[in-house]
Amino acid sequence: MESDKSLQFSELKFIELIRKNLWYGQEYGRAAVMIGSGFSRNADKISKRTSPFPLWDDLGEIFFQSLYPKSSSSDDDYQKLRAQIKKAKRTEQLAQDYEKYFGRTALDDLLLRSIPDNNYTPGYLHRLLLSLPWSDVFTTNYDTLLERTLPKIYERKYDLVLTKDDLPQKQKPRIVKLHGSFPSHRPFIITHNDYENYPSDFAPFTNMVQEAIMENTFCLIGFSGDDQNFLKWSEWVDENLGKSTPLIYLCGILDLSTTDQKNFRKNIVPIDFAPLFPKERWPDSDIRHNCALEWFLLTLMEGAPPNKNRWPTISKITRKSKCPHIPSIPPGPPSLPDLGKWIPSIEILSNQEIIDISSKWQRQRNEYPGWLILPEDNRENVWMFTKNWINPVLNSLEKIQPPNDIFVLFELNWRLQLLAIPLFSNWLPHIEKIVISYNPFRAITHIK
After folding, report:
1. Fewer CB within 10 Å: N-end or C-end of the chain?
2. Domain boundaries in the chain?
3. CA distances (Å), 45 to each of 145, 321, 334, in order?
4. What are phi and psi of 257, to 5 degrees?
5. pLDDT digit string (tens) for 259-276?
């Protein structure tokens, strides 16, 4: 990883805010995400010959070629016609024309043929995305990659919402398919009329997105600045929420100019990873987008706090990047204290070694979650990192300068009490000498 580029990234403050809210709770936090078609390009191909997932503009090209097949006219004339039509009609309008001429069934079949869902399996980024504690995951994609990722996720449980009728039975966190789902949960929202009628035809979904935006830090991933799915949803939010609209974060390789940034709606904050992933170093567009999203998701993952339920182990999960030369991941909260060694290197410890082990034990004691009875797995872990230290610590006490001797004895006794380990007779002479040495009333109590 490169060492310092990410820490100088001007929009890191927004990512830190997302990360903080994402890990706000235990089961899930206060951040939601909407996934667009660009994210599907991070899936794994079953075959090298598999065609790539089409983006929004790619679907527009498919509709154009179906509506205006190339005839005997010259290639220049055809390209002029193509430019003229594509300038006048956006993808959803071309889809509307296709439905008008060929019918809705033909339109659905064309989408099923054009989006190679079954020729892909969920990729590393799909697993990374769903390992994060999103309060909800929305998607405008028809493919089934997200739901097929669920059996591979052990840290989280998501309920799947395919239709508005699923909503009463499903609980957060959810994966919500806003625009239909392959192969048969229809309509696939694609035509101009579909978008115009969506707020009334799918009011439960629009209300759910509105609620998610109001209650969470809301991220958009896999969209471009001119993606119609992004534009339609941002328009709808702006129209319905007005001045009370919270900020929405559009995350990805956007390659925005200063003018492009000014053209965004006031409630949309673009987080453009392009400065971290310049084209000169990342000439392949798909790899560039993939590595940028991996860096972003790993940065969010790094925000995880230590899981105290696994005390005393260092429970923070560190995931390695699969992209070479990726910028460094900004550090998150510190992990639990280091457990140290299982076995000391010598039988008689030096004063410094006593101080070190006492400090480690003290930090672990301060992180103790407060269980009345230590769970079995945790107890075994504590014992594993304690049992081999007992005799070396006790054998070294007489040679250790005060008050380090009584400090380490206190920490050792706390651990033995926690483990319900009795003070065996061969330990008592060592312990008694130290305790007596600190007794200021030996003459009164007749303790020698």
Report:
1. C
2. 6-41+119-310, 56-114, 351-445
3. 12, 20, 37
4. -85, 170
5. 777 777 778 899 999 999
CA dist., res. 307 & res. 15, Å (int): 22
More confident residue, 335 or 126: 126
**Could you tell me the pLDDT band of residue 82, with boundaries at 50, 70 and 90?**
confident
Report d(CA 189, CA 177) in Å as an integer.
11
Question: Residue 364 and residue 414: Cα distance in Å, rounded?
Answer: 11
Domain 6-41+119-310, what architecture? 3-Layer(aba) Sandwich (3.40)
CA dihedral 403, 408, 413, 414 (to 10 degrees): 100
For β-strands 268-272 and 217-221, DSSP reports them as: unpaired
Q: Please give the DSSP secondary-structure letter assigned to residue 185.
A: B
Q: Are 63 and 96 in contact (CB under 8 A)?
A: no
Among 41-50, 69-78, 408-417, where is mean pLDDT lowest? 69-78
DSSP 8-state assignment for residue 306: P
CA distance 448 to 442: 7
According to DSSP, the β-strands at 217-221 and 136-139 are unpaired
Please state the rounded mean pLDDT for residues 238-251.
83
Helix (H) or strand (E) segment spanning residue 401: none
